[in-house]
Amino acid sequence: MESIQLPKDFVLGTATASTQIEGGETNSNWNDWYRKGGIKDGTNPARANDHYNRYREDIDLMASLNIKAYRMSIEWSRLEPVQGELCEEAVQHYIDEISYLREKGISVLLTLHHFNNPMWFENLGGFLNKKSPEILNSFCARIVRRLGHLVDEYVTINEPNVYATSAYYFGEFPPGKKSVKDAVIVMTNLAKAHIAMYNTIHTVRKEMGFENTKVGYASHVRVFEPERSKNPVDIIGAKLMERMFQGGLDTCSMTGKAIFPIIHKKDFVRGKYYDFIGINYYARSAVRVFDERPIKNSEYNDMGWEIYPEGIRMVAEKYYQKFDTPIYITENGIPDRNDTKRIKFIYDHLKELLSAKADVQRYYYWTFIDNFEWMDGEHERFGLVENDYETQTRTVRRSAEFYRDIIASHGITDELIQKYF
């Protein structure tokens, strides 16, 4: 194994999402989904990590691990429990939380929508409603006016491709639809919402007297490869799946160029709607005809996803070549209950990423602490920090110590290789 020196301005951070860690009955789509039996292990997002009440403890722990960059999200259902009315108590909570992060020397990349909707929005049809981009953008404007003095970097929407397909095609996320037509409508409305939010955040921050605003969104980007490398049907299938899952939506959201599967082309205006590209990378897919297959003779994580470090370099180079802008790896992590693969996972992915012919500036490990993993519940363990949900006891894993030491050394030295491998 070789030592790794991080570039001078390269930043290592970590990431979470509000619904997955905060806990609480907030009348969100995920509280409702639990009540409808949509969580595989039967656990309740109202428990999660109780981070809403324990955020100071968690931020102190984060600081002890040398974390200087944190991607977090806010809970829409908590902030806007009734349409058009912000909850001042919740607004003040996030002001206090972000202020405490800044006090500890931790910069914030704030995600405004991360799979979480208030039930009043769901009852209006959610993102099938043609007014949904306007509704989300209105929330965005009010939040930036309240938090914009503390935050200068934003992710508008997290993984709109995963949200659209999981909630409206596979039926695994609320509201549990299974319709190609609905998924396409939702993708289109999410692209409209991102563009509107991008413009709004810049406008509001400028009105507040701030010029140094950065806005992007976080796309879940997979590597799609034909299972039979020379089979024309598999080759076409891989290209179509890439376009349908990520390529079309990302192109439209970033540039306003509406291509398949995005509809309502006349509603989009060409432009540049990104200041960085956020990439969430986890795995690759082999495609046979038009079906995803497991990769033979590969290593897998606890959720059965292939561990494929080369893919993080491939997607970074592809998106940098296409969009010519700084790359933030806004998520990359592994469900690893026994913490036996995470250290090597981080090493291998950083090594590949730093060899990419791209301007990669950030890497946010997913996630800081074990959390509520959407429809899989509490079973899957992505965290650098272990969480005992019964007692809410946090335990620093060995992989967290490794990550702490990488940040302190600004690289992976020979000494760290000897210590951890």
Could you describe the 3D structure shown?
- The protein has one domain (4-223, 274-283, 305-420): TIM Barrel.
- Helix content is 41%, strand content 17%.
- It has 14 helices and 15 strands.
- The strands form four sheets. It has an eight-stranded parallel β-barrel with strand order 2-3-4-5-6-8-11-12, surrounded by six helices. The protein has a three-stranded mixed beta sheet with strand order 7-9-10.
- Helix 8 (160-168) packs antiparallel against helix 9.
- The longest helix is centred in the middle third of the chain and has 28 residues, at 180-207.
- It is globular and about 55 Å long.
- The model has no long low-confidence stretch (mean pLDDT 97).
List keywords for this structure.
alpha/beta; 8-stranded parallel barrel; TIM Barrel; 3-stranded mixed sheet; 421 residues; 15 strands; 41% helix; globular
Radius of gyration: 20 Å
Uncertain runs are none
* Total strands: 15
Reported for the largest beta sheet, the result is: 8 strands, parallel, barrel
**In CATH terms, what is the fold-level topology?**
TIM Barrel
The string of secondary-structure elements, in order, is EEHHHEHHEHHEHHEEHEEEHEHEEEHEH
The domain count comes to: 1
Report the helical percentage.
Answer: 40-55%
Mean pLDDT: 97
CATH class: Alpha Beta
Class by alpha and beta content: alpha/beta
In CATH, the architecture is: Alpha-Beta Barrel
Distance between the termini: 9 Å
Count of helical segments? Answer: 14
Strand content range: 15-25%
Question: How do the strands of the widest beta sheet line up side by side?
Answer: 2-3-4-5-6-8-11-12
CATH superfamily: Glycosidases
Shape assignment: globular
